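hi!! sorry for the late reply, been swamped w classes. u asked for the two structures so here they r. pasted raw, havent cleaned anything up. first the sequence of the first protein and right below it the tokens
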Amino acid sequence: MGLRDNLRSPVTTPAVIVTGTGKEGTYGLPIGHVDVGVSESAYLFRAALPGVRKDSFLPGSLCCNIETDGKVCIQGVAHGSELAKKTPDVTYELNVSQLTPPGPFSISFRLPGPVDPRLFVPTFRSDGILEGVVLKSKAQAALGDLDKSVTAAGQ
């Protein structure tokens, strides 16, 4: 496969909807960059959440909901500078402001197929990445097995 073939092959980009302060972050580390991976039995997603603290992954402060049709909705709060909070008597005027502003945000996107939300394993990494693995629904997995058997029979 040459360079010309790579240019013609379609790249699928999931539609990602970002709201709240995540939408305002136009420079630096924006909230809402998403990667989606596919295996035979599961989907993997990774969402960039800069400004969200790892200790925020507690009930009510960072929430990730997955629906059976593969829709993922992440809601949370990006935090501001800890140094500014520790020294409230000092006012800082920002000359460069490239980080996502503090405040609530939501990110919504859709996985490539239906899933079983009960079989979801989230991991919030220390580098601000929310990583999730969710198993495909049994119907989706059965279709994958059927495709393999049809391919094998056709060989």
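now the second protein. again sequence first, tokens right under
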Amino acid sequence: MTRFANLLFVALAVLSFYSVSTDIVTYTVTFGPCVQNVTCPQGNPARFNGTFILNGTISPKLVLNVGDRLTFNLATDVPIHPLTICRNSPIPKFCQGSNGTDELNIPITHAGDTTSVTFTTAGSYFYGCNFHTGMGSFINVTNPSSSKKHQGIRHKLFPLA
């Protein structure tokens, strides 16, 4: 029994050393105006001149770590602009037309709706309107290096340039 307890202790110590810390990253999302060729994301339809705004920043690029849980809390109704988190989306679609395994959440459209995704793999992801191009941005998910396990990049906003 002692040998089993020692083995279990070692296994748990190794697991905790290699585990990825998880942050819950939450953004309040609104939908607002943007200026074509200035603050609107690439491909934004001129008839809308609008896009998603996260914590007051127009369509920012997000940088997260593997293991982070991204949560969007929708603060406004967007019935014709379902907010979607996806992968494999060609630019400037930002989730326009995504479905099946490329769609990582249930799109949300009503004030008070919440959606979340936990990223388990590093890579490029997107968020945006499921119906229209140019209404979203990038989510870059990185593997923190083992030496910087607890100091990795955490939920940073980068305005679109």
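hope this helps!! also noticed smth abt the second:
The longest strand covers residues 24-33.
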